[in-house]
């Protein structure tokens, strides 16, 4: 019975109107994500530099932790614009805390958010299953790959561009898509998402 309810609810189009609880929750998710972004900023270079030196292009595998906020926010709030809002606000928080990329952090947040948002829009904000989350994570990865190759690696060889794009997209699929989806389900089981469809479909409440 619960499985039937959950299956149906993942295909019900969300109301486009944002509630106060939607705004507050998306903002909380964004701020927490921004702090995680900032922490990952500090840890990413020691991890990514050796990968880049040994396997140029594959350092894109470390990009996933910067891509998850939009997917996570959208999976919880389920409103048009949630992915873009959450990812962009998270980028603002990260920039305010201080990053090596300065204002370009906001550009990355905007691009990543749009990449995920487009995917949810393609499914008419009516399908919140795991494969949609994975595709949204890939969408954020595609968007970030294009930005990075344009800004940071202009004129890169085709082999590098392909390796960087594939590794970034794979990281987006696994971390931004898969882990965000699992996190939403874990939060739902605690009752923290009881005011959201994402929480009710896991617990079987209508």
As a whole number of angstroms, the C-alpha radius of gyration is 17 Å
* Average of pLDDT: 92
CATH top-level class:
Mainly Alpha
Strand content: under 5%
For the record, give the distance between the C-alpha atoms at the N and C termini, rounded to a whole number. 11 Å
Give helix % range: over 70%
Which runs of at least 5 residues are low in confidence (pLDDT < 50)? Answer: 1-9
Structural class, please? mainly alpha
Major sheet summary line = none
Query: Any idea how many domains?
Result: 1
> If helices are DSSP runs of H or I spanning 4 or more residues, what is the number of helices?
8
Query: What is the H-and-E element order?
Result: HHHHHHHH
Q: What's the CATH topology label?
A: Arp2/3 complex 21 kDa subunit ARPC3
What sort of overall outline do the alpha carbons produce when their principal axes are compared?
globular
The CATH architecture can be given as Orthogonal Bundle
- For the secondary structure, the number of strands is 0
């Amino acid at each position: 019975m619960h499985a039937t309810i959950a299956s149906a609810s993942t295909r019900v189009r969300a109301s486009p109107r944002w509630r106060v609880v939607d705004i507050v929750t998306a903002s909380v998710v964004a701020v927490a994500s921004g702090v995680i972004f900032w922490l990952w900023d500090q840890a990413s270079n020691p991890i990514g530099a050796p990968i880049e030196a040994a396997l140029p292009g594959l350092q894109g595998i470390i990009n996933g932790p910067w891509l998850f906020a939009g997917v996570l926010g959208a999976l919880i709030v389920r409103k048009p614009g949630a992915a873009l809002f959450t990812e962009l606000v998270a980028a603002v928080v990260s920039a305010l805390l201080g990053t090596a990329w300065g204002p370009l952090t906001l550009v990355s947040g905007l691009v990543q958010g749009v990449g995920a948002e487009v995917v949810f829009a393609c499914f008419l904000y009516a399908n919140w299953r795991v494969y949609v989350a994975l595709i949204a994570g890939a969408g954020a990865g595609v968007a970030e790959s294009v930005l990075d190759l344009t800004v940071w690696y202009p004129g890169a060889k085709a082999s590098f561009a392909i390796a960087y794009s594939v590794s970034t997209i794979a990281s987006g699929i696994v971390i931004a898509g898969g882990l965000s989806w699992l996190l939403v389900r874990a939060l739902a089981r605690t009752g923290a998402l009881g005011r959201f469809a994402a929480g009710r479909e896991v617990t079987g409440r209508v």
